[in-house]
Amino acid sequence: MTRLASVLNRVWAGYCSRLPQILYSLLMQPTTLRFIGFSNFFVRISVLAVMYSGSAFAAELSVGANVGNVPWEFQDENGDYVGFEIDLVTEVGRRLDMNVEIINIPFSGLFSAVQSGRIDIAISSITITERRLESVAFVQPYYDSAQSLTVDSGSDITSLDDMRGKVVAVDTGSTGDIWTLENASRFGFSEIRRFEGLVPAMLDVQSGRVDGYISDIPGLEYFIRDKPYFKVVQRIETGERYSMVLARGNPLADQVNNVISELKRSGFVAELHRSWFGSVPLASSSTVSVVDRPISASVGGRDGGFAQTFLNWSVLLNSMPLLLSGFGITLLLGAIGILCGLVLGLFLSLVRLYGVWPASLATKVYIDIFRSIPILVLLIVVYYAPPFAGIQLSAFTAAAIALTLVSAAYTAEIFRAGIEAIPAGQFEACRALSLSYRHTMTDVILPQAVRVVIPPLTNNCINVIKDTALASVVAMPDLLKQANQAQALEANPTPLIAAAFIYIALLWPLVGLVGRLEQRFRQEYYR
Amino acid sequence: MTAIVSIKNLSKQFGNFDALAGVNLEINEGEVVCILGPSGSGKSTLIRCINQLEDFDSASEVKIGGIDITAGKTVRADVGMVFQSFNLFPHMTIRENINLAPLRVKRMSEQQANAIADGLMRRVGIAAQAEKYPSQLSGGQQQRVAIARVLAMEPRVILFDEPTSALDPEMVGEVLDVMRDMAKSGVTMLVVTHEMGFARQVADRVIFMDAGKIVEAGKPAQIFDEPSQQRTRDFVNAVLQQ
After folding, report:
1. What digits encode the pLDDT tens for the residues B175-211?
2. What are the residue ranges of helices labelled H in chain B?
3. H-type helices in A79-225, by residue range?
């Protein structure tokens, strides 16, 4: 018992001391902020579409970066953008006589931002791959990288060979993701979980939900330098090299490439390496020696036209399996959230209306709190807080719980309004006929209330289904998540457009259904 | 004669307002009693208290069939009520409206309940409307459905709360006809009404209420033709002159 108490004590102390920081860092993550509104998803697409024709001003060099990607691009304590690639691209801009403007864009959105002309250059330790070369252009590489396996310090895992049957975390659409997919059967990973950045992935390594994290080695080594509770146990040679991404056919690519050649010859890039990593790069590395611009091996590639970019048939076919599996998760999660929310919401509304006053008050407080809390915040709390108390919830369970809790609060208010809309005479007639409370509700009040509440209830269902998109923040492979991954793998935004159409195809009939039901119930007895 | 309803010193306040101020009343089996009085005189409150739709002062005593409902006992199945605004269940057909309580409260079989409903619908003249919804019926028809719904439970006394006040004038007659038939067949009835003709013709006893009290009670002829109280006389004259 004493042992148990001391364990609980430690867990509680750790929970209290770290939770605020963890929540803060999660919420301040650009990737997290992006998910706060689902509508952003559509806004982003429309922005891409609108910006497609127009290019940035000549004197401005817009650079997109996934800020927070240490030590390449991140914010220092003053909020200024700093990092290896920030320094490099700023110097490139200076030499081209252009003003560099850094725009914070999540990794999986960088490629479409380049293709649409929203930004001129994308940086974020982007690895040159053959597939990406079909859609975008790279300048010469300036860093030779590798992947790495990071685990919790207390773990027994010492190499990839120990990962058989284990859960591995990766960043959505990254080269770590690609490598892990290709080598999944060789090392026998039981599951690949996809995260939107390093911090949430590392939190799950710490909580034990995932056993190891495969990601770019420089970022990991930089991140864990002051965190002894993590260790990098294996360097995975992939021969990958980082470079900057531009749109295919952008004449700026050659100019930037030439400037980088100059910067390598003058030792500027090697000096950056020394200042950010504390070591001098090898003379044979791409950080020091000038190399050719990578060119796509396949003939033609994608020319970057509107249809090729946004409605690319081959990309669509490639990404269809991913999208469909994501669609399945979205449907399942939505259905659970709606059904459980319905049952719990009905119960809450009855307690609120007819319960003894302490129960009624508690219900009112519950409803008010859960209607005001953003689902995303709740999701993060439900997912990340219980492990500190020793309770392990899967991402799916956490997402289902968060959706249910919020959906129930809205449903309860809808039912309450529906029941209160029933005239008092209906209750009196039931009492005069000696009907029990249960029969009064099930036979008379609720059937009428349901007709009143069907339209607002269906609207709530639509919201729940849309909110499933937030689950991707806890690495649930829902539709939006899969679309993002497919988009990053293909370096093409077609999967996002396809996802938008799938959402519309799913929700449009629901919207239509509301109208038809409203009409039917009106005709039935309120003539 | 046994008293089905026995009320002693029934009082009720709404805030500072005395809705009922010490009402004493007995209703015997098979008796038809009509309650008259200006609005706000407490007549609706009186019958709502009998049906436990309102609480009343604990010093009062209300007995239904000898059982004291002041003590919290429920004998509601012995008391039926017809409302001014019908209060039919709009999402159910006429038949379903009538069958609901027999099925749920008396736990009759569907067959049994249907047989009773068929008889009642013929009796109140709405057999042809059985499968329609209340909104498809006229006000008079709806009130007759409400009466059939109450009769299906075979209560020992039926309370009527201004059953014709919400009806168009041409429909008042058909509802009163049904009530007249019920009275003839021996149903115990307590009727709050403004229909003087009905009261004079059907009632065994007429009660005049004002300010939460029974002012005068007696045979119809006595109340209408030779009331002993000035207030009764004023009220009757005012109504008859309309």
Report:
1. 999 999 999 999 999 999 989 899 999 999 999 999 9
2. 43-50, 94-104, 110-124, 139-151, 169-184, 196-202, 220-225, 230-240
3. 84-95, 107-116, 130-133, 175-187, 198-207, 217-223
Q: Where are the alpha helices (DSSP H) in A168-312?
A: 175-187, 198-207, 217-223, 252-265, 268-277, 306-310
| pLDDT tens by residue, A481-518 | 888 888 888 888 889 899 999 999 988 888 888 778 77
Distance, CA of A519 to CA of A522 (rounded, Å):
5
Task: Mutation target for A interface from B50, B96, B100: give the one with most A CBs within 10 A.
Answer: B100
Helices and strands (H, E) in chain B, number of each type: 8, 10
For position A458, what pLDDT does the model report?
87
CA distance B107 to chain A (A): 11
**pLDDT attached to residue B55:** 86
Q: By the 8 A CB rule, do B87 and B146 touch?
A: yes
Those residues with Cβ within 8 angstroms of residue B10's Cβ, 6 or more apart along the chain or in another chain: B20, B22, B23, B24, B25, B46, B49, B56, B57, B60, B61, B62
> Which residues of chain B lie closer than 8 angstroms to A447, CB-CB?
91
Which residues are A231's β-sheet partners? Answer: A151
Give this prediction's pTM: 0.67
For residue A71, whether the previous peptide bond is cis, meaning omega lies within 30 degrees of 0, is yes
- Partners of residue B90 in chain A, C-beta under 8 Å: 448, 525-526
**pLDDT tens, residue by residue, A360-404:** 999 999 999 999 999 989 998 888 888 777 788 888 999 999 999
* CA of B21 vs chain A CAs: smallest distance (Å): 24
Residues of A in contact with B133 (CB under 8 A): 524-525
Nearest to B235 by CA among B46, B43, B52: B43
Cβ-nearest to B101 among A425, A426, A434: A434
Cα dihedral sign, B218-B219-B220-B222: negative
ipTM rounded to 2 decimals: 0.92
User: Of the candidates B80, B104, B150, which has its C-beta nearest A443's C-beta?
Assistant: B104
φ, ψ dihedrals at B89, nearest 5°: -85, 110
d(C-alpha A26, C-alpha B202), whole Å: 81
What are the pLDDT digits (tens) for B4-52? 899 999 999 888 888 899 899 999 999 999 999 998 899 999 999 998 8
